[in-house]
Amino acid sequence: MTAEFSNKGVVVTGAAKGVGAAVAEAFCREGARVALIDVDVAAGSELARTLGPRAHFFQADVSSAAQVDQALQQADQTLGGFHILVNNAGIQTYGTVTETSEEVWDRTLGVNLKSAFLCAKAALPVIQREGGGVVINMASVQSFLSQHNVAAYTTSKTALLGLTRSIAVDYAPKVRCVAVCPGTIDTPMLHWAIQQSPDPQEVLEECKQMHPLGRIATPQEIAELVLFLSSDRAGFITGQYYRIDGGLGISVAGSKRA
Ligand SMILES: NC(=O)c1ccc[n+]([C@@H]2O[C@H](COP(=O)([O-])OP(=O)(O)OC[C@H]3O[C@@H](n4cnc5c(N)ncnc54)[C@H](O)[C@@H]3O)[C@@H](O)[C@H]2O)c1
């Protein structure tokens, strides 16, 4: 059987760890040529080495236009063109509006939102030149629901849905654009976040119980949805968001089993 993405080039941001690493690995498994983009040079180059000759690492801070342009140009040359962009890089920051400094606001919106604009701006001409393709934006359940103290994060994830619609409308029919909205995922980001609390184990347990399925997601489960939405099997899907959240947000807050 031919691998589903064997004739495709794919760019994944935030690909050194967590969800991005699982996405890069899944595309490689399905035969794609993959550019891994990240600020973490050590983890990114090591992962590209273990994924084999189809994987290439490029260093970039995706909130910088100059670095994005350079990395995507290198990716285009090295991969021989690409068709799929996965805007996955993101950071979690905490604070209410009054607690959030301008610096944290700008950094959060820069890495989580402006990055998707910059990467799409650099990638869309390549994707169009190659005959069309797909842009996937990694949003969150926090595009719809907000916990306390995440003013900048939840704003960035909500705005990504607007960017998704805008790209979908402007670049149809050759380019589709879809947002993925996960619940809690077992990644370094989550482990960093729960370490901010005095009892990380308790917070992890609470996270699991918030999801009606009673657990958090694996990065691989998110990667499988990204693969499906990037494939021709999802060829009539554009401008939409897909929640992959173990049911988080469908139950009435505080409701208990009978
Ligand atoms: N983990 C969760 O529970 C969860 C839930 C919903 C959505 N998400 C979203 O999924 C995406 C991936 O999250 P994760 O949990 O794998 O995070 P992670 O922190 O585990 O990994 C993120 C990767 O992005 C890279 N990165 C950070 N800033 C960057 C920058 N400026 N330029 C380039 N690379 C950068 C990091 O080096 C890291 O390799 C994020 O957009 C996040 O908001 C995560």
Chain-wise SSE layout:
Blueprint: E1 9-13, H1 18-29, E2 33-38, H2 41-51, E3 55-59, H3 65-79, E4 84-87, H4 102-129, E5 133-138, H5 151-171, E6 175-182, H6 188-195, H7 200-210, H8 219-230, E7 241-244
Parallel strand pairs: 1-2, 1-4, 2-3, 4-5, 5-6, 6-7
Helix pairs in contact: 1-8, 3-4, 4-5
Bound molecules: nicotinamide-adenine-dinucleotide.
Brief write-up:
By secondary structure, the chain is an alpha/beta fold. It has eight helices and seven strands.
Question: What does it look like?
Answer:
- With 258 residues, the chain is an alpha/beta fold.
- The chain has two domains: 198 residues, NAD(P)-binding Rossmann-like Domain (Rossmann fold), CATH 3.40.50; 32 residues, no CATH class.
- Strand 5, helix 5 and strand 6 form a beta-alpha-beta unit.
- Helix 1 packs across helix 8, helix 3 runs parallel beside helix 4 and helix 4 runs parallel beside helix 5.
- The longest helix is centred in the middle third of the chain and has 28 residues.
- The radius of gyration is 18 Å and the shape is globular.
- The termini are far apart.
- The structure holds nicotinamide-adenine-dinucleotide.
- The site of nicotinamide-adenine-dinucleotide has 27 residues, from helix 1 and helix 6.
